[in-house]
């Protein structure tokens, strides 16, 4: 919402999309990303890379370390710091595809739980995400979505290079 101040009251103008529709849009992307994880052979998920990029499991670790805790931070103003997160190394404590998918599903539930606790006006508030990224909460959320799409695209390239047809990016059901 955009805040419009008048002499007597403050009016909140709606966003281009309501919060439920934004969540549904993001969850559609998360379903596609989950299918990309499922498409990987387990050994390649944790080891395969191209051009020095991290293995896909490491990219997924980055996504999960930001998205669930990020929505929780927006909802509660309780943030972990970037220094407490180990996602940029590509290392993950998860060591099987099943465990990675379970963590993905846990984070999806965390997003849904804390999203429901975010008041509409909070999306327009400036937050300091992870002690490092400052911006309106909706912009931080859009960054989480963009980051996921970016890393999913890397995973899609990995799959193609392995001779595996990736899931259709446009099928978000």
TrEMBL record:
Family: Belongs to the DinB family.
Binding-site residues, a divalent metal cation: 151
Lineage: Bacteria, Pseudomonadati, Bacteroidota, Sphingobacteriia, Sphingobacteriales
Organism the protein comes from: Pedobacter ginsengisoli
Protein's name in the database: Damage-inducible protein DinB
Keyword presence, Electron transport: no
Record key words, sorted: Metal-binding
GO MF, one annotated term: metal ion binding
Matching InterPro entries: DinB (IPR007837), DinB/YfiT-like (IPR034660)
């Amino acid at each position: 919402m955009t805040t419009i101040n008048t002499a007597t009251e403050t009016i909140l103008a709606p966003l281009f999309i309501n919060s439920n529709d934004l969540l549904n849009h993001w969850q559609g992307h998360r379903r596609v990303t989950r299918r990309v994880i499922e498409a990987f052979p387990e050994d390649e998920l944790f080891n395969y890379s191209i051009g020095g990029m991290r293995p896909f499991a490491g990219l997924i670790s980055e996504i999960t370390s930001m998205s669930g805790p990020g929505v929780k931070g927006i909802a509660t103003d309780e943030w972990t710091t970037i220094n407490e997160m180990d996602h940029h190394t590509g290392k993950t404590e998860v060591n099987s595809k099943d465990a990675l998918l379970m963590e993905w599903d846990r984070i999806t539930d965390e997003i849904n739980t804390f999203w429901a606790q975010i008041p509409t006006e909070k999306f327009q508030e400036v937050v300091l995400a992870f002690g490092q990224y400052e911006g309106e909460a909706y912009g931080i959320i859009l960054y989480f979505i963009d980051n996921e799409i970016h890393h999913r695209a890397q995973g899609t390239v990995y799959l193609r290079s392995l001779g595996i047809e990736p899931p259709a990016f446009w099928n978000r059901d």
